[in-house]
């Protein structure tokens, strides 16, 4: 699909290396994802066979350094996320759960033993990870989690025993390792849990209308026993998981614009080919207004993502800025996908075209890693200095 969405020369702000990364991922999406995504989505199938190929592409733990990780920049990772989500949000979500959540948690907060055991295998696609934070009754308020880890015995070497339930956990049923967050007598702590540990059960959530080419699960933890060494030593309190969530939110800022761009380009091509009343739809003023509005928001959202990426690479990205990007770009992307679907008429409700699939997926993307309401309050707190969460 010809990409003429860049109205203001944003590509000129990218280095040759950044463009090369983008083009490499875009080519992968064109050959490996686009020809198959309608079938995967219709069958609600996550293609496990694509995991080793994504590892070869260098997008698993892409922004992490050492331990076999690619060590690319934040902007390069963002560009990759944009191209992956132009293919499908579910495939970008896999990369996000694997790298920005599970791998980041181990990389940021793990012991050297934990890093050496898991990160090289995860970067190579030989092990899949998941990130267990959200619970059936604790989504936007993870401080209310009921999963509890207790010490069984005295001393620092005593085992941990975990009980609880996690929900909407990506990849859990196919993962080899889970990062599980639990309340303890000493606050929230994270644990590295091999999924073959007795007491770990992951059940896929089915009958989804969104993210169908992806896996989300409910995890049941029943008297799951772990050695003391399973705890992430450098994560104490909610700051630990929140730092990982911000990594995932950053990728979403870029990814949502990929879904928006693909929806826009699909509507553009369709409107130039579809004849109504003797001329192409694209020749009507109302159609051109819709296309222009889409393109404007894509350009603004991409500039926003790039600015945040530059800040991240410079070490200056702030949490409220991540909320600005996540709130704006998800909100605009879902509006663009819906408008694009409408422009396709009846044909737009089929899997022959991408916008409704993107719109459905974006319902999930807009919800996870912080709802619109949560990010609005994060920004509101920054603007006013008054927290209004309660």
TrEMBL record:
Q: What is its EC number?
A: 1.3.8.6
**Reaction(s) this enzyme catalyzes, per UniProt:** glutaryl-CoA + oxidized [electron-transfer flavoprotein] + 2 H(+) = (2E)-butenoyl-CoA + reduced [electron-transfer flavoprotein] + CO2
Q: List, for all copies, the residue spans of the domain called Acyl-CoA dehydrogenase/oxidase N-terminal.
A: 16-126
Does the entry feature the keyword Transit peptide, yes or no? yes
Print the keywords alphabetically: FAD, Flavoprotein, Oxidoreductase, Transit peptide
Highest taxon of the lineage: Bacteria
Q: Name one Pfam family in it.
A: Acyl-CoA_dh_N
Give this protein's Gene Ontology molecular function annotations.
fatty-acyl-CoA binding; flavin adenine dinucleotide binding; glutaryl-CoA dehydrogenase activity
Q: Which GO terms describe its biological process?
A: fatty acid beta-oxidation using acyl-CoA dehydrogenase; fatty-acyl-CoA biosynthetic process
Question: What are the Acyl-CoA dehydrogenase/oxidase C-terminal domain coordinates in residue numbering?
Answer: 236-383
Q: In which pathway does it act?
A: Amino-acid metabolism; tryptophan metabolism; Amino-acid metabolism; lysine degradation
Domain Acyl-CoA oxidase/dehydrogenase middle, chain residue ranges per copy: 130-223
The reply to whether Oxidoreductase figures as a keyword in the UniProt entry is yes
Q: Which cofactor does it need?
A: FAD
Cross-referenced PROSITE patterns: ACYL_COA_DH_1
As for family, the record states: Belongs to the acyl-CoA dehydrogenase family.
* PANTHER family associated with the record: GLUTARYL-COA DEHYDROGENASE, MITOCHONDRIAL (PTHR42807)
- Annotated protein name in UniProt: glutaryl-CoA dehydrogenase (ETF)
Give the organism's phylogenetic lineage.
Bacteria, Bacillati, Actinomycetota, Actinomycetes, Micrococcales
């Amino acid at each position: 699909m010809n990409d003429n969405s860049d109205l203001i020369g944003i590509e000129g702000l990218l280095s040759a290396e950044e463009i090369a990364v983008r083009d490499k991922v875009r080519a992968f999406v064109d050959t490996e994802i686009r020809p198959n995504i309608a079938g995967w989505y219709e069958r609600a199938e996550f293609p496990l066979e694509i995991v080793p190929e994504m590892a070869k592409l260098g997008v698993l733990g892409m922004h992490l350094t050492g331990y076999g990780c690619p060590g690319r920049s934040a902007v390069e990772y963002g560009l990759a996320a944009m191209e992956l989500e132009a293919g499908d949000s579910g495939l970008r979500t896999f990369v996000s759960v694997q790298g920005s959540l599970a791998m980041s948690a181990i990389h940021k907060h793990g012991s050297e033993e934990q890093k050496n055991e898991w990160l090289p295998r995860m970067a190579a696609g030989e092990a899949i990870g998941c990130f267990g934070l959200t619970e059936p009754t604790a989504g936007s308020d993870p401080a209310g989690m009921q999963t509890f880890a207790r010490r069984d015995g005295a001393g620092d070497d005593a085992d941990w025993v975990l009980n609880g339930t996690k929900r909407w956990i990506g990849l859990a049923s196919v993962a080899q390792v889970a990062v599980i967050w639990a309340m303890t007598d000493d606050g929230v702590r994270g644990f590295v849990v091999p999924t073959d540990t007795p007491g770990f059960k992951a059940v896929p959530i089915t009958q989804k209308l969104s993210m169908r080419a992806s896996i989300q699960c409910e995890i049941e933890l029943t008297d799951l026993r772990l050695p003391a060494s399973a705890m992430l030593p450098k994560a104490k309190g909610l700051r630990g998981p929140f730092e990982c969530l911000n990594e995932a939110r950053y990728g979403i800022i870029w990814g949502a614009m990929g879904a928006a761009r693909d929806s826009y380009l699909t509507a553009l091509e369709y409107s130039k080919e579809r004849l109504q009343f003797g001329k192409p739809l694209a020749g009507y003023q109302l159609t051109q207004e819709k296309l222009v509005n889409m393109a404007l928001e894509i350009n603004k959202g991409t500039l926003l993502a790039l600015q945040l990426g530059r800040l991240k690479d410079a070490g200056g990205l702030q949490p409220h800025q991540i909320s600005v990007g996540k709130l704006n770009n998800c909100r605009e992307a879902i509006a663009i996908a819906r408008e694009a679907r409408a422009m396709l008429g009846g044909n737009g409700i089929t899997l022959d075209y991408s916008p409704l699939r993107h719109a459905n997926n974006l319902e999930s993307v807009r919800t996870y890693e912080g709802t619109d309401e949560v990010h609005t309050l994060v920004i509101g707190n920054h603007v006013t200095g008054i927290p209004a969460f309660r």
